[in-house]
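Model it.
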Amino acid sequence: QVQLVESGGGLVQAGGSLTLSCQASGRTVSSRALGWFRQAPGKEREFVAGTSWNGGYSQYADSVKDRFFISRNNAKHTVVLQMNSLKSDDTAVYYCAVPSLGSGWVAGSVDYWGQGTRVTVSS
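Modeled.
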């Protein structure tokens, strides 16, 4: 069993930065990929960024590439999403997630979700 707890959301002005953290617990979490999805009001949940079990490989949605950066610390069981140059379109609830093995980053193939943290970007 894996538990995920996000923190760091809040209100930020457009162009600003915010850092989200996810504290993971569970025996197997260090051997699993970790990542972030988001869901804006009235929209489907979408992939944002993900990293492999050792942090050696990361993927990003085109919409956040070169603005968001994901990193993990397996000793502390944390994954961090650094978000820069924020836009109003980044406003959403952000969820930490552990994808199903071999599934890739698809919202419908996630084994564990956090409770979410809200990010609001004001223009």
